[in-house]
UniProtKB/TrEMBL annotation, chains A, B, C, D:
The lineage of its organism: Bacteria, Pseudomonadati, Pseudomonadota, Betaproteobacteria, Burkholderiales. The active site is at K179. Residues 173-293 form the 3-hydroxyisobutyrate dehydrogenase-like NAD-binding domain. Keywords: NAD, Oxidoreductase. SUPFAM superfamilies: 6-phosphogluconate dehydrogenase C-terminal domain-like (SSF48179), NAD(P)-binding Rossmann-fold domains (SSF51735). GO terms for molecular function: NAD binding; NADP binding; oxidoreductase activity. It comes from the Bacteria. The keyword NAD applies. This is NAD(P)-dependent oxidoreductase. Residues 13-165 form the 6-phosphogluconate dehydrogenase NADP-binding domain. It comes from Zwartia hollandica.
């Protein structure tokens, strides 16, 4: 069997069919693969099997047994490690040359150490975290950053390309690292823009004018373009991506820095302010609400404007 | 005389014909205005009068006397204040309803207080700092942010539009504020991107791949697009805009924050790191060399790559 | 008249008889001087004159006229400048060689520029801010940091020593600088100690044990000794010194740094967090409540303990 | 055998007889215990056995075999884990109820996880890091922070009290946590004091006067008292404790914070600046030289003064 042949249908065990994993598993199914799913949350599994039949449900004990691919998109690398190597860990049941694709926003260093254990067992392993939220998971247009051996990534691409556009970032763990660092840069751009909006609007600048000028000048970034008018000036704060997930991502980036002994004063303050927002506002608010922490610290609210 | 009529030629006293002011004065001259210049550096004045005739030279004592417009682009607001109100200050010689256009990257609060004094004297005053460096000054495509009374800005626009594209930012001082805040957001985007490149490349990511991924994802900003490959990965550091000027701009932004009592922890750390780079590397290096401070702190250099 | 002779009674105009100024003026009165007072808050003046007679009240127009000394302890240097040079400013009424003693926690740079104007008028001027709160004002044991010409400070010492212990810090403004920098070091010691208590107590350390260990080790500072058990672990937060005054002091220190072009990343973050606490908690809470901001950011409260 | 009876001599395997461990092992020997030593550096072992006889040398394979106590003071918790559980790990040879005393400045979370593994093997384990440098190791006056079961700590105290004064900090790991947090508070006090000295001296204050005022006021901390005149104003920078060790300690404190999800913006900036000094100045300079990074950032040196 050539599992990496585009035309051939593979057996995919998909673990974690939550907000992201659900629609992603659906895309693989629609792509012609035999998809079976597992999730610690039974409702998630039922939602999938209601559509695709009871035979798509996997028990914990079945995980891995006949899979060509195990795809995982789970809360974090700790959960991934548990599923692979914990009690009843699926690794013991996997056939040789099966491939594990970890699409979780995970920790590069944990990924590297799991990789070493899996290599010793002749199990292929790549990291392939995604960028883009639920709608892009649904229509298969996620950005997928893949780390791992070139041959492994190549073999995974037919599957991955059903879910999004693949970018190869380098060796194992590099996908996880890139994802976290991208989000760090994004979060910092958001935060400094908010501080600028607070200072400027308190001085008397119209925040809509500010966003327009930033966007047509060197202050432009992804947040000035896609978040400030949409979620902040509108006071809607409804991007759909929760604060705690963003904090997790940039904590991964900064964990990487600490492990490498790289001082990153600016990145760490960014994390501490985002993380502090989680303390003050709660973990489940929209990530764009981090603006409210800056506003509370300043005792000033950026005026609402509909533009 | 309708000085604001495009077809009518005005008498413009242009103060500060340095790297920026020189070509800007040239544009006004080419636009048909009677341009006379002053600069504390006699070579700057000679460079202009060599082309346009001795009669374009102004002495300190002549400054303002027969001007319809005084245009200034000087090192900072302290110099502007000196030129206007210091010993031999030109304000005393200005005719009523003459207009002063301050194109310096200035301090909004000083601009406001000078504005109050000028209003009492019936002298029109706007701030009109520019974004874009020498080449755009030469071909008249600067971005010009104007703050001041709508009627004043309108009257100035025929002149300004010879030098660039005008954006109205609001009341007096708002141009200076906007310019500084834009550069703050830009500098923060640069700095966090550098930290990400250091962490990522030390982990093993290829910096060129990193920049590509950032640019196609939420980590995108003006620096990832226009500075990282060009000046950092190439190790050329030759953007042409010096470090001390950037530090001045973001110091203005943070001075504004302090005056307004707005805590801006992220912005202040940004300033302190840029300002610290000036201490470590010297004021006259290219502003993109701030990356070298982050590298020195990390004991790690982002690998060169030609892409 | 030898105003600096201990035995000789001087005429002192005392401006600002608030929480601190009231008891300090009282000490001068008890020391045998002719003390007359002014305050923009009439109740403050009445409180003094109720005890010492109506003739101790000064009108704004009388300020300075027959004074040997003008002593001021006002909210900030802006108010000092207004009182000296504003409309009805007292400087115009002062006799030559009169001395102004500014005991406000003031801004060194404003002090220096006021000093230049006063020197031109032959008026002596020193800064003499105080450390120690109301009880020490009452019993005359404040720490007084004096900046100014040695001869001037010497002449002021008999008066000052009625209010506290005098330390000469150097030239004009140095008292104000020293006071602000001292409070900066104090605030940073407080803040880092709070972060340590939060981390440690969340890990499982007993905060009382922590404070004891800090105090007997290199982590010792004024706050570990005199504030943590007293105001934090007791959850009393009743030191009596308000948050906004502390924020003002460290804002002065950081204003000094910015004016000198000194990057002070650690000091600026300290200020921004203290200043942010003012935004979140309000200006009038006890300064020790800054701990609550750190707690809110962490989503964790240092356990109460009575030790 | 009652190993915890003061009068009874125990067999102690002492691992890590470096700058600190050497004199500490010596103290145990002088206290009447049978001390045998191991170190990955053979010269360290020879230095000990030259004095106390060849029979005091242990091979890797002998480690643990007949020990009542294993005392370790090693570079970090990673090394401790290797020695206990790595290839040839001593744990396999330890008799039941033997006790391991980890005096390394270690990571509390690693200590906790090692503790779980050791408990399962019926091996007693406490952490007992020390504060105080080589001279205090030599005369047995270290501060020793002990974490672990009360009964275990009690049993260890006769040994520990030969090396210093014991403070019980709580459960396992609490000694390591306390030590790291104490050093964090100490490092922050040092750093803010340096920034204050730079700002103040650039303004014109005499640094000696500054230190005196801080010491007699609320700015007082361990560094103002014991380090600023001694090592900074003297420009000697010869405290004897290297930079990389201090950075390790505060990295442990901040690792704890990150593991607990506690944002500690001030602590993290402290770490990043200390860590950045390591990058700029090298790991082996005296820890007091961190002042030089602040000076380089400021482009200003605190004047030398002999006081
Ligand atoms: N949401 C988004 O927009 C994006 C998310 N991501 C990343 O994708 C990952 C998943 O996110 P998302 O889908 O939103 O999260 P969800 O919480 O919606 O889905 C995760 C699912 O995994 C389940 N799960 C948890 N533990 C286990 C376990 N041990 N075994 C099996 N299943 C388990 C969860 O169950 P339970 O509910 O019981 O915990 C849940 O159903 C995260 O790493 C996130 O950072 C990346 C890009 C965008
Ligand atoms: N360079 C750039 O790319 C950009 C610059 N700017 C801003 O434009 C302004 C000017 O910058 P730039 O042209 O590069 O600087 P330059 O130094 O080249 O030009 C400034 C000129 O002003 C002169 N000057 C100084 N003091 C006085 C005085 N009292 N009276 C008259 N002339 C005086 C200077 O003379 P001397 O040489 O003797 O000091 C110099 O010739 C600054 O505020 C800068 O921040 C904005 C955007 C881009
Ligand atoms: N409180 C303390 O423990 C310490 C305070 N300080 C410093 O001492 C100074 C005074 O503090 P404190 O006494 O507590 O403050 P208070 O507010 O109690 O006293 C200040 C007094 O000045 C008055 N005032 C304000 N403006 C004017 C004016 N233009 N002319 C005359 N009087 C005016 C105020 O009146 P109104 O009420 O109308 O504003 C008030 O009565 C501050 O600079 C503070 O930082 C220093 C060490 C300790």
């Amino acid at each position: 069997m050539q599992a990496h042949d585009k035309k051939i249908s593979s057996v995919v065990h998909f673990i974690g069919v939550g907000a992201m994993g659900g629609p992603m598993a659906q895309r693989l199914h629609e792509g012609g693969h035999v998809v079976r799913v597992f999730d610690s949350n039974p409702q998630r599994v039922e939602a999938f099997s209601a559509q695709h039949g009871k035979q798509t449900e996997l028990s914990l004990e079945q995980l891995g047994s006949d899979a060509d691919y195990v795809v995982m998109i789970l809360p974090n690398s700790g959960v991934v490690e548990e599923v692979l190597f914990g009690q009843n860990g699926l690794v013991s049941r996997l056939k040789k040359n099966a491939m594990i694709i970890d699409m979780t926003s995970g920790q590069p260093n944990m990924t590297l150490s799991m990789g070493q254990r899996l290599e010793a067992l002749n199990i292929l392993f790549i990291d392939a975290p995604v960028s883009g939220a639920v709608p892009r998971a649904q229509n298969g247009t996620l950005t997928i950053m893949t780390g791992g051996e070139a041959a492994s990534v190549e073999r995974a691409e037919p599957l991955l390309s059903l879910m999004g556009i693949v970018t190869r970032t380098g060796p194992l763990g590099s996908g996880h690292a890139m994802k976290a660092l991208n989000n760090l840069v994004s979060c910092a751009g958001y935060l400094i823009g908010i501080e600028a909006l607070i200072i400027g609007s308190k001085f008397g600048l119209d925040p809509t004018v500010m966003v327009d000028v930033l966007n047509s000048s060197t202050g432009m970034n992804n947040s000035t373009q896609k978040k400030f008018k949409q979620y902040v000036l509108s006071r809607k704060f409804d991007s759909g991506f929760p604060l705690h997930m963003m904090v997790k991502d940039i904590a991964i980036a900064m964990g990487l820095a600490r492990n490498l002994g790289v001082p990153a004063p600016f990145g760490n303050l960014c994390l501490d302010l985002w993380s502090g927002a989680k303390g003050v506002l709660g973990p489940n608010v929209d990530h764009t609400e981090v603006a409210r922490l800056s506003e509370q610290l300043a005792g000033w609210q950026i005026p609402k404007s509909n533009s």
